Amino acid sequence: MSEFFKAELKDRFLEYALERTDYFEIQTLYDEFLRPNYNLQFVEKLVREILEYDPDLLDVMNGNGMEMFLLASTNTTQDFLDEGGFMDIYVKEEEKWDVFLDQLSSTKKLSKDEKKLIKRGNPGLKREKTLLIVLISAIAISFLFTLGSIFKETLWEPDYVPVDEFERKIQQLQEQYIQENRRLQTQLEQAEHALDSLTK
Prior knowledge:
Residues 163-194 form a coiled coil. By secondary structure, the protein is mainly alpha-helical. The chain has eight helices and three strands; from the N terminus they run αβααββααααα. Strands 1-3-2 form a three-stranded antiparallel β-sheet.
């Protein structure tokens, strides 16, 4: 449960105590505000936190074997709630944290005059800036030439085969064709011879 919700519950407990003119059981707070999602021990914990902050905010009586059995408001309860109660304490604490975190994260910003002095007072900065621009330009031009050569090779120039290599490949294919043709012719003659011998 968030601290915000706890602070709100503590204030509601105190407001409830103010509305009552007599003592009431701590069980009543549980029944009114937190049943069935939380247990009675959680109510006791919140009441203890109230009493730890200021023991005069509630009048507590023990009984029935319980340390806190009956509760009632006191003279300081109304004053405390009029000053904002636990919600006000929570909000102030959050504001302190916000201010603290803002102080941590904020850095001193330079004025225009200070920026001009820094720029004027540092001639090496201009030289570095110029060198950086030249370097980036050289890299960009190199990149463009690389892209151009890649596109030129892949799109505009077909892949030519030299004539002598082409003739050599054709010659190899013809030789393979002739050898395969002879082999098949030999097999055909053997098959015809075997067929003739069977028919006789």
